[in-house]
Amino acid sequence: MPAVFTKEMKHTHTILLPDMLPVHFGLIQTVFALNGYKTELLTKSDRAVVDEGLQHVHNDTCYPALLVIGQFIDALKSGRFNPDKIAVMISQTGGGCRASNYLHLLRKALETEFPQIPVLSINFSGLERDSGFKITPKMFIQMLYCVLYGDILMNVRNHTRTYEIHKGDTDSKLHKWVILIERALKSGHYKDTKRYYNAILEDFAKIPLKNEKKPKVGIVGEIYVKYSPLANNHLEDFLISEGAEPIVPAFLDFCMYCAVNTVNDGIIYNFTDSKTIIFKAAYLFLLRKQREMIRVIKQHGQFEVPHDFEELRSNADKYFHQGVKMGEGWLIPAETAALMEHGVPNVVLTQPFGCLPNHIVAKGMMRTIRENYPEANVVAVDYDPGATKVNLENRIKLMLANIRN
Ligand code: SF4
User: Fold this and answer.
1) Looking at ligand 1, which residue's alpha carbon is closest to its atom 7?
2) Does the pLDDT of residue 126 top 70, yes or no?
C-alpha cells in the first residue's frame, strides 16, 4: 500500500514542489503557508536531475515526468531532508493524457528507497479523494490570484529584462513585488487586482531601458516544457542573451483551456452535470479577470498585451475542433496563430520527447500555419534527455538568423 498523507502530517511534514513556473510557484508557496502547509520549491536544474530521472523513468515516457521525478529523487538523496517528514506533490490534469498517471510513476520510483513518503496530487478533477490534503475553496481562490499576479509579473519581467540598462534591476523589482503580493495575500487585500496591476506596471516602467528594438519571439508548446527552465534549458534567458524578447503566453490560458474543455464536453456529448455547471461559472469568472488585466495593460501602453481567451478560441476554430484536447490540444495552434496576428511571427514550439498528442497538434499544424501566415518563422524543438543543449540552441539560433536575414 502506498503511504497516505494524513491530516496530522500537515503539522509534521514538508511538501516538496517541482518548479514549473518560477514566479507563480513562488507565490503559490505563500498560499500553502497561509493554510498551514510547509513547502519547499525545488529549483535544481542541472544534468544530475536528468540522470536521476533516467534511473527511474523509462526514456520513452514523457520528458516532463522524467524531470519532475528526477528532481524529487535527487533532492531526497541529497541528505537535506528527513524522509520520514517529507511528502512530495505532483499535478494531475485528470484528462486522457499520460499526465494523469505521473502520480503512479512517482510512487513506483519512490517504492524501493523511500516507501514512507506520501505522494500528494494537486488536481481539480476529484482524483485521490482519500488524501488528508485538500484544496479548500479559499485556497483555490488564493491560488487563482497567484496565477494572475504571476502572469503579469512574468509579462513585465520578460520585457524589462530584455532592455534593462543595469543588469539586475528587473530581478530586484520582481523580488520586491513577490514580497508585496505575499503581504497582500496575508492581509487579505489581494483581490484588489486593478490597483496592484497598475502599481506593478508603473513600478516596472521606471526601470531605465535601452532605446532599441529587438525582435519578439513567442514560446508555445507543452505546458511543462514551455515554462520550466529545467525542461527548456532556461529558454527565456537564452533568447534574451541572443538579442530577442521572449513573449510567453499567460499560464491563465492553460487554466481556462482546462475549464472550457469540461464545458465543451457537455456541449459536444449533450449532457449537463454539476461539473459542467461549475466549470462554466469558473471559466466566465476567469475570463472576466483576464479581460480586466488586458484592459489595464492596454491602457498603460508599454507592455505586451495578453491574448483574450475568446480570441484564442476563435483562432483555434480556424484549425481544429475544440474537442481535440489531448495534451495541450487546440491551445497550441491557437496560441501560435494569436502570436502571428499580434505581430510576433517568430515562435519556438517547445515539445517534450515522447509527447505524441502535442506533436500532432503542434508540428502537424506547422504547414497550415505557414500557409495562413507566410511571414511565420517557427521552429519546433524536441526536448529529450539525450539531446545536447548546444544542439537544441543551434536550432533556435537558426530561427533567429532567419529574423536577421
Ligand atoms: S501532453 Fe505530452 S508530455 Fe504531457 S502527459 Fe501528454 S503525452 Fe505526456
Assistant:
1) 355
2) no
Q: How many CA atoms lie within 13 A of 23 on its CB side?
A: 28
**Cα of 97 from ligand 1 centre, angstroms:** 6
Does domain 9-130 fall into CATH 3.10.450?
Answer: no
Contact between 58 and 318 (Cβ < 8 Å): no
Look-up: residue for cell 454539476?
274
- Is residue 360 very low, low, confident or very high in pLDDT (cuts 50, 70, 90)? confident
pTM for the predicted model, two decimal places? 0.95
Domain coordinates of the chain in residue numbers? 9-130, 215-404
- Contact predicate 4/132, CB 8 Å: yes
Nearest atom within ligand 1 for CA of residue 225: 3
More confident residue, 104 or 88: 88
Most distant CA atoms of the chain, gap in Å? 62
Residue nearest atom 2 in ligand 1 by C-alpha distance: 355
Q: What is the DSSP string of 248-299?
A: ---HHHHHHHHHHHHHHHHHHTT---HHHHHHHHHHHHHHHHHHHHHHHHHH
C-alpha to C-alpha distance for 16 and 403, rounded to whole angstroms: 41
Q: How many angstroms separate the alpha carbon of residue 329 from the centre of ligand 1?
A: 10
Q: How many CA atoms lie within 13 A of 256 on its CB side?
A: 25
| Confidence check: pLDDT of 369 > 70 | yes
Paired with 40 in beta bridges are: 16
Show the ligand 1 pocket: residues with CB < 6 angstroms. 62, 64, 97-99, 222, 327, 352, 355-358
